[in-house]
Amino acid sequence: MANTLETVDPTTELIYKFRFQQSGQSVHLTKKQLNFIPYLSTLVTNQNDVSNIQNQNDEYLLKSPIDYTSFMVILRLVTSDQPYILFNELHEDENVLNILKLFNDLGSSIKAF
Questions:
Q1: Does residue 40 sit within a domain?
Q2: In the chain, how many domains are there?
């Protein structure tokens, strides 16, 4: 069974659902969280222009190289505005350069960078 991370209270805010195609895991984001990651914001804005962007459950599909573990580190990094989170939350075997590349590819930024 796929894991889902609830990051919002679904009764109070509009949520956007994303599923990581490689792992089957999903994440639900608010508009505010979405705005921290320009790539995802653009994906949602242009949903009608691209076929196969959503599955039958209206979840936006995220394909490789966007993986759940790296994405969650980046999400916590940009929403907390604390750059040290990047190094605190990485597992020993994860490549920080791959995370930074994904961070850049997603169009994300934080004040400290």
A1: yes
A2: 1
